[in-house]
Amino acid sequence: MSKIKSKYICQSCGYESPKWMGKCPGCGAWNSMVEEVIKPKGKHRIVFSHSESSTVSKPSPIHQIQAAQEPRMLTGLHEFNRVLGGGIVKGSLVLIGGDPGIGKSTLLLQVSSQLAERGNDVLYISGEESLKQTKLRSDRLGVKGERLFVLSETDLEIIIQSILETEPAFVIIDSIQTIYNSEIASAPGSVSQVRECTAELMRLAKTKGIPIFIVGHVTKDGTIAGPRILEHMVDTVLYFEGDRHHTYRILRAVKNRFGSTNEIGIFEMKETGLKEVLNPSEVFLEERAKGASGSTVVASMEGTRPVLVEIQALITPTSFGNPRRMANGIDHNRVSLLMAVLEKRVGLLLQNQDAYLKVAGGVKLDEPSIDLAICISIASSFKDVPTNIYDVFVGEVGLTGEIRRVSRIEQRVQEAAKLGFKRIFLPKANLGGWKCPEDIEIIGVQNISEALELAIGG
Q1: Model confidence pLDDT, tens digit, residues 13-46
Q2: Is the pTM here over 0.85, yes or no?
Q3: Rounded alpha-carbon distances, angstroms, from residue 67 to 70, 84, 426
Q4: Helix (H) or strand (E) holding 156
């Protein structure tokens, strides 16, 4: 008998080592090396069709390749379709991740029901719940579809055989961490199992042209569990974000080979399932307090859609040696940088002040155009002077205090005018070259001092 060999694989990054180590040399994680038995490679491989094993690919000149625009599969959720780039592409492999209990299975079960009602055969494979548990959730969501098939299985070979026999138009795997390949000795959810099972499902999706959605667990850091290569293998990566204690959920595309990245869709969790929010700007601003200092509105671009969001700031004298800088929905390093600009270029004494900033509604903003709104919020709270509730602020702030141009300014202005705002502050460099709505005043500012003078009086 041949000697059994084993290797140690980091469960965070996939680094392989012949011996155990307390700290992974690849990513620096501690106690992440897990032993996996190496089986001799056999000739066994799942063959999806006879033509697949005999077809040999040959290089083709790019000008001779015929580009065909295939129709997309549309669901009943317009927000879901838009995040995917206009619908579901045939043969695509989509990974969706999110915190436990956030609503991933609920969303995909609703999508499955809508596709089944439109005459498509849908196969929902659950590795975490029994058939009865899935039925209980479907009854609560009002799912009714004769063409929606449910399977409770974790063996990859049985799953693939079921897909080949059923020949569905749409497949959901919930979740990839529970699926295992019997040819691999490691436990389900390990790096090797997740990588190999995803590779087989990707080969099936491309060969048969079946769109497959796989659900991925997330770690405590908020990233999808397993090796980073998992996100590189799939066509689209979606994150389902939100607080379980609040009703609103955000579906964000961080990778999409068939559409725009950083696109978001807003949903509201109700007793009967998820309901799409078609006007998120109005939802984020409906509870805004009037006459409160430290509150501003920014027109941020999320993918191809402009969204108006409220930024709140609270500046208070510190009782510690080092003042605190806390931010929710904004990078706290950006907050520290902008406070240094305000102190150096405007003369605000913020070095002995605690700063707490928050984006209302649970949205995460990371584009440079929110800089001006952050600065106005900080200055408004520091001076205890409220801003005009009908003002919107857009612009990137440089280290010398200048206001730099931003992209897609016309769409931002139109969204602000549509929601009834009267003035919008934007960089002077963005003035001209586009048509301005008649019912909103455009104020171009060149530096942060000018913006503060016009917004809150200095």
Answers
A1: 778 888 999 999 988 888 888 888 766 655 445 6
A2: no
A3: 9, 20, 41
A4: helix 156-166
